[in-house]
Design brief:
Elements (H helix, E strand, L loop, with lengths): L3 H16 L3 H13 L4 E2 L5 E3 L2 H8 L4 E2 L3 H7 L7 H8 L8 H12 L2 H6 L1 H22 L1 E3 H6 L1 H11 L6 H11 L9 H28 L16 H27 L3 H7 L5 H11 L5 E6 L3 E3 L2 E3 L4 E5 H4 L36 H15 L6 E3 L4 E3 L6 E4 L1 E4 L18 H9 L1
Parallel strand pairs: 2-8
Antiparallel strand pairs: 1-2, 3-5, 4-12, 5-8, 6-7, 9-12, 10-11
Length: about 425
């Protein structure tokens, strides 16, 4: 039986967790929650699950399902008044079987690792163009914002190229995605939810017009994703925009933040072709774009030694699981260390709700590091990475930088280099 002090301690731990946005401070909060037990009850009745093994098991447990529309109709009356919540629950992001696997299949087929690999050269060329444009702005103005001027717009431009959406609208789509992300939070201010509702309405109208005009103009658009793939529907495009843009922005922004904290020698090592993947995986471990996955027990189940009754709501703490010493016994999990022996984590989920865009996000990140590496010596941090915190997601909002003219601007790589191996292009750019 919990004492009054125990209940008060757990509530304070939950409050600290809700307020913490800096990943450098999150380790102590996660450790406190793990110390309070494998399951920590929140003031709203749900259970926090902070352990690596428990999160891994829960993500693939078929008894644990999403809080879909049918559940919300019973437990949160009035939820349909929110356009954002309604749209997210109606999408495959929050669907359960049998609808979910059927609706998910076309995205999985379009975004396989093989499909993304075939898009490698166009992605590298597009990312290179964006980085060069940012470099020109920095050399012209001497100050810039890595998030607003590069990391926020770039994933939207790549998505536009992939889906046939007009690239001139990339900025608009990035803004809408950022606003909509708050609709998926477990706690959100009323004004942010209102902005999310308005943005969802705007995005759905935009996508409806786009798909109608595209389908009326020709049976197959010029930028269709592949010869054997039907052009994406408006509902599929909604998912790719709402879930894929701000999370990739967060990954790119975090990579910049980590690189700017390194010495030039460390930067060269981390961005070397053979080390880029390790840097990406450590960044995803240390501060994953999605830190919380919420499930409910459709049937009674077991999690570790704990019985989970039917109807229990669980918050699976991906961020805390990635800092669990039991899973990273060889090195301090609260230390950012690209050289660590990486074990499988869950930055893109696991099981039936594993993110179909994981390969695309990683491909963009690797191309980003390849193009950014040559410019890093002349980029200096002008302030901290500004984050909009939330227990489920953390949006990267700003990362100001300044120009260091001590280093000459590197030569612009020719687009023909996009067809050469990645290691050759990187080495050439540093000579």
């Amino acid at each position: 039986m919990l004492t009054g002090n125990s209940v008060a301690l757990r509530r304070e731990l939950v409050r600290r967790w809700l307020r913490t946005t800096d990943p450098a401070e999150a380790g102590a909060v996660y450790a406190g929650l793990r110390g309070a037990g494998p399951l920590v009850r929140t003031p709203w009745g749900a259970l926090l699950v902070p352990g690596h093994q428990d999160v891994r098991r829960a993500l693939v447990d078929p008894a644990l399902v999403m809080l879909d529309a049918s559940w919300r109709d019973v437990h949160t009356p009035g939820w349909r008044q929110s356009a954002a919540t309604t749209a997210l629950c109606g999408s495959l992001l929050m669907q359960n079987p049998p609808e979910h696997p059927v609706n998910r299949r076309p995205l999985v087929a379009a975004l396989t690792t093989r499909s993304v690999t075939l898009l490698g050269d166009p992605i590298r060329e597009q990312v290179s163009d964006a980085v060069e444009e940012f470099a020109r702005k920095l050399h012209r103005d001497t100050t810039a914002d890595l998030i607003e001027d590069l990391c926020k717009r770039l994933p939207a431009e790549v998505l536009c190229r992939l889906t046939g959406l007009p690239e001139r609208d990339a900025g608009l789509l990035a803004e809408l995605a950022t606003a909509i992300s708050t609709g998926g939070e477990i706690r959100r201010p009323v004004e942010e939810l209102g902005s999310a509702d308005h943005s969802v309405d705007q995005l759905l109208c935009y996508l409806g017009r786009f798909t109608a005009q595209r389908d009326a103009a020709a049976p197959r658009p010029a930028h269709a994703p592949g010869p054997d793939i039907t052009p994406f529907t408006s509902s599929q495009l909604f998912v790719m925009i709402a879930a894929g843009l701000f999370t990739t922005t967060h990954l790119l922004g975090n990579l910049c933040d980590r690189l700017l904290a390194m010495t030039p020698r460390e930067q060269r090592k981390a961005t070397a072709p053979e080390r880029r993947q390790a840097l990406i995986e450590e960044t995803l471990r240390w501060d994953p774009p999605v830190k919380l996955a919420t499930r409910r027990a459709q049937h009674p189940t077991q999690l570790g030694e704990s019985a989970i009754p039917e109807g229990t709501v669980l918050h699976l703490m991906v961020g805390a699981a990635h800092r669990d010493p039991a899973a990273f016994a060889d090195s301090d999990p609260d230390t950012f260390d690209p050289d660590r022996d990486h074990r499988p984590g869950f930055p893109f989920g696991q099981g039936g709700h594993f993110c179909p865009g994981a390969a695309l996000a990683r491909a963009q990140a690797e191309a980003f590091l390849e193009s950014l590496a040559a410019h890093l010596p002349s980029v200096r941090r002008g302030g901290p990475l500004v984050r909009r915190g939330g227990p489920s997601f953390t949006d990267a909002l700003a990362l100001p930088v300044t120009l260091d003219r001590t280093f000459p601007r590197p030569a612009r790589p020719a687009h023909s280099a996009a067809t050469t191996p990645a290691h050759s292009r990187t080495e050439d750019s540093r000579d």
